[in-house]
Amino acid sequence: MPRRSPSQAAGLDDLQETTRRVCDNVEQVVEGKPDVVRLALVVLLAEGHLLIEDVPGVGKTLLAKALARSVDASVRRIQFTPDLLPSDITGVSVFDQESREFEFKPGPVFSNVVVGDEINRASPKTQSALLEAMEERQVTVDGVTYALEAPFMVIATQNPIEMEGTYPLPEAQRDRFTARVSMGYPSPGAETAMLGVHGGTDPVADLEPVTDALEVRKLIEVVQGIHVADAVKRYVVDLVSATRSSPDLRLGASPRSSLQLVRAARANAGLEGRDYVLPDDVQALAGPVLAHRLLLTPEAQVARRSTGALVADLVARVPVPTGRP
């Protein structure tokens, strides 16, 4: 493993300090969920997208808005509804009477942070409008391709598909989300504190940015320079390959998930102050990164197996590499 240079050490120090400020800022309004806030930061630094799934009323949109508010960057919100059209997301070309030419009017996807509220209440056709943007950081409208400014992150919330008026996310859409997280109900103490803080005003309105888009881009470059040993890469491939041969799954994880798991592991190592990735980083993120991409067989569904439990079983069974990173 190469020795850490002074610039790498300074970059990791800046990363830890900035992420600490962001965490403290978000936790002013999202009480009792430090692990969820940390995962959101891991996804941001991994240049990924975050899917927040849970029942209504547990703070999914609050987390998305608080994280977006903590970064001084362009933020747009999309409220997904059954009648939303793809052009409402990407933008549309409008004919200008004066210039006698079509002029492109950018949609809300042209921002650094896109907050998609209740994404699975829109039709699959509308959801697919985000596919190109999330994977390629660009939007093509009427044959013209427009690049999206970095950093670009989609933070989407969704209710469980058992809820009325929801559509299941297409497999291609789910695969583009780096990680999925569930908020869960707050502890009694956190819920009591919430009644005092949130009872009168909107706490997100009082949040001030603690970093900006330029600094986030620098931190992403620091994360990209974190070392991943060949043994760790093989461990990621072995773990992902195990999902494809599991008898309980009819759809395993894609090669894209391997790449995103490595990116997320790099970000997690950076948050820990390390310039190298350990198998522990991979194991900690295997569930959030892989579980939402998997499809159970009908037999596993009848047996009430969950994809999260299956990933945990695979993590326990796949051999872990030993030796120095």
What does the model show?
The chain is 45% helix and 16% strand. The strands form five sheets. It has a five-stranded parallel sheet. The protein has helices at 6-26, 34-45, 60-70, 87-90, 124-127, 131-136, 171-175, 188-197, 213-224, 230-244, 255-271, 279-290, 298-302, 307-317, and strands at residues 50-53, 71-72, 75-79, 91-96, 101-106, 113-117, 138-141, 144-147, 153-158, 179-181, 211-212, 249-251, 295-296. It contains 14 helices and 13 strands. Strand 7 (138-141) and strand 8 (144-147) form a beta hairpin. The longest helix has 21 residues, at 6-26. The mean pLDDT is 87. It has 325 residues and is of the alpha/beta class. The protein has a domain at 227-325: Helicase, Ruva Protein, domain 3, CATH 1.10.8.
CATH class term of the domain at 227-325: Mainly Alpha
* CATH architecture name of the domain at 227-325: Orthogonal Bundle
Major beta sheet, strand line-up: 3-6-9-1-10
Estimate the helix proportion, in percent. 40-55%
**What's the end-to-end separation, in Å?**
7 Å
**Rg of Cα set:** 20 Å
Number of helices: 14
* CATH fold name of the domain at 227-325: Helicase, Ruva Protein, domain 3
Q: How big a fraction of the residues is strand?
A: 15-25%
Mean pLDDT: 87
Shape field? globular
